[in-house]
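Hey, resending since the last one bounced:
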Amino acid sequence: MNNSHLLMVDRISAWAGKAFAWASVVLTLVICYDVARRYLFNSPTQWGFDVAYILYGTLFMMAGAYTLSRNGHVRADMMYRTFRPRTQAWIDLALYFLLFIPGIVALVYAGIEFTSVSWAMKETSSVTSAGTPIYPFKLVIPVAGLLLLLQGLAEMARCVVCIRTGQWPARLHDVEEEDIEQLKDILGTDKTAEQK
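The structure tokens again:
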């Protein structure tokens, strides 16, 4: 894979993550509506809870590949960030082979089985009495798994490039997390400007 292929996979993950991020807006509206009905009119919905957890689960699952494409998953990196890029790449590649690929392949395989059973029986929620259909939601599991697998393969290719060149290949960026030292510098600069 060359860098343009890697960036194309990043774009696919970004598209999926950003498209499903709108679920958070719908989720907020559903919860506000349900809370208003419950506490202002003493008439709670029967479907609000089901729809809320379906939307939250969809948002959570579909954000995985996007987060991985932005190198945003949580890691214990106190030591990792001090390593040279080649060492980081070797560690990442080993962990992708040992943990990530087997786990995601299992997720996709089990997700397909889980989804097919759910669709065959037209599964509905057993949590509330509304009988909200949840079988369409189950399709999110293998789809999110496949997107995560695709992004994981791109990340493994990035590791191989870094091992060969000693530099991490470029990736798409949206929002950058500021480093603590950078924040201190920014705040220190602002305080100096205020004192003058």
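The helical segments are 3-21, 23-39, 48-69, 85-120, 135-138, 140-165, 180-195.

Sorry for the duplicate.
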